[in-house]
Amino acid sequence: MEIFWRLLFGHLLADFTFQSNFINRWKRTSSLGLLVHCLMHPTFYIALCWPYLGEYWVENIFLRLNGWTCILIVFLVHWLEDWWRVYTIFKYHMPDNTIFFLWDQIIHYSVIFAIVPMAVGSAASAGLFPEKWPVLGCLFIVVTHACTVLVYFLEKDIHGAQYPGFDEKHLAMAERLVLALCFLFPSMAGAAALAAVWLGVMFFLRRNRFFDLTAFTFYMGVVISALSGLAARAVYY
């Protein structure tokens, strides 16, 4: 499963952490912008999976595909899926909503998963979490940038909200990250105490409007942070 988690980490980095507002707008208005965004994915895949690229990830009586070929396939499918999404939104005025966003992500994850289960050689270590760092990296992105995008789509569909501004976005990300990190304290009792204290700080900041978050955004962030923190604790310890 090393390859799966490394590819998933690379996907999340390219699709969320390094997809700035500028890149997001550029890919929707320019073929070059779309290509630049999509090329970020194999860049991260190659960097993260470098030790395994020469091995055969898919090997059966029909196919033998090494890491380079598999990454090329993932890249091409990603480009086609993103092109189709942009095309249908602008050509046929399909709503760019939560369902479309989740469908897009499911397609990307499915392609990655289809490549990985047949991985062989040193890339086929036993166990669901053979390495901690890429899993923890995935959870870090879920708490920060991925949560921001998911909550935005939900808020937009429910309340017609706009994408959060720079301060609101990054302060909310920092709040969620600190809450998730509380769960990594060695003692479970200590982790619970730290999380409770930080939750109190979060409620205080929201009540005194240091920055304005809707109740939905706030509580969704708390839930996602807590679940991600518990998952990170289970993986780390």
Characterization of this structure:
The protein is an all-alpha fold and 237 residues long. The protein folds into 2 domains: 2-125; 139-236. Helices cover 73% and strands 3% of the residues. It has 9 helices and 2 strands; from the N terminus they run αααββαααααα. Strands 1-2 form a two-stranded antiparallel ribbon. α4 (67-91) packs antiparallel against α5, α6 packs across α7 (166-182) and α7 (166-182) packs parallel to α9. The chain is flat, with a radius of gyration of 19 Å. The mean pLDDT is 91.
State the main characteristics:
mainly alpha; 237 residues; 9 helices; 2 domains; single chain; flat
Summarize the structure.
This protein has 237 residues and is mostly helical. It has helices spanning 2-17, 21-29, 31-49, 67-91, 98-115, 133-159, 166-182, 188-207, 215-236, and strands at 56-59, 64-66. It has two domains: 2-125; 139-236.
Output mean pLDDT: 91
- Count of discrete alpha- or pi-helical segments spanning 4 or more residues: 9
SS class: mainly alpha
The number of E-state strands comes to 2
- Proportion of strand residues: under 5%
How is the main sheet built? 2 strands, antiparallel
* pLDDT < 50 stretches: none
